[in-house]
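Sync notes, pocket subgroup
Present: LS, DG
LS reminded everyone that the earlier model was apo-only. Rerun requested with manganese (II) ion included. Inputs:
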Amino acid sequence: MHNFADYIDINDEVLDALRFDKPIVALESTIISHGMPYPDNIKTALEVEDTVIQNGAVPATIAIINGRIKIGLTSEEIEYLASSKDVTKVSRRDIPHIIALNASGATTVASTMIFARMAGIKLFATGGIGGVHRGAEKSFDISADLTELAQTSVAVVCAGVKSILDIGLTLEKLETLGVPVIGYKTEEFPSFYTRSSGFGVDCTANDPIECAKILKAKWDLNLDGGVVLANPVPKEYEANSDVISTAIEKALDEANRNNIRGKHVTPFLLAKVKELTVGESLETNIALIKNNAEIAAKIAVEYNKL
Ligand code: PSU
Ligand code: MN
């Protein structure tokens, strides 16, 4: 008999936290390999882990290295993900072949949720989740992050979704899938770079305790699946929305003209937006991830007390 534990390596800090029921926050690795330029990505990844520690929880950055699922990475492993060109983006459907062929991959929101769940981790912090792409009625391009949120019981603290996506359709899809969308101290769903999107949330939670209680009620009732905890970027780090929307329009146009498809769409758009907005978007990006790590750690601390 084999089970999933045979495929997973959990580092000592995380093992200790699991054993003694200490709060843990999962962190994804696609953001490191495909979300940010080197060396800002490695610097940010380490700072985000530190933010989790400063706020009373244990960080568990997740990836696949040489066919092994890693829960908690060494700084050498993070450095490898940040600098190597041949780390592939791994979502749910990519997991079997990356593992079987001893390859390495950076995990998306979907696959990070899957591995966090296997390890017994409830809270996960990232920048933005995937969603329904603009024009999805023709392309069918809807991120596997959404179907994962429907079935895997992990709460994802994010700054909403980027408007490279259709935010309204993303929220409709989350409603259909039964995924609660909770605004953290906001009544508006944030759009990553900025605090507003023009769309509301299901409910507003005003502190980490309220968030923890919502998660406990959902999972106590066996309502399996994730929760989106939407935490807007701090005001002082908001990007200029005109600069961002101009860049996004250009990026979408280029993706269309270059016939970009499938799993390459999101990384292509992220890279283009990054290139077109230079420093502006990067500073915002780093600030919002740290802010999400802080709130996720605080919620993990409260969740463990309930
Ligand atoms: N959106 C962002 N930054 C990211 C991603 C999305 O603003 O880094 C990454 C995340 O890892 C997310 C993935 O899970 O892209 C979604 O890819 P796709 O749309 O192919 O499912
Ligand atoms: Mn897609």
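DG: Residues 279-305 form the longest helix (27 residues).
LS: Residues 141, 143, 265 surround manganese (II) ion (ligand 2) (CB under 6 Å).
Action: DG to write up.
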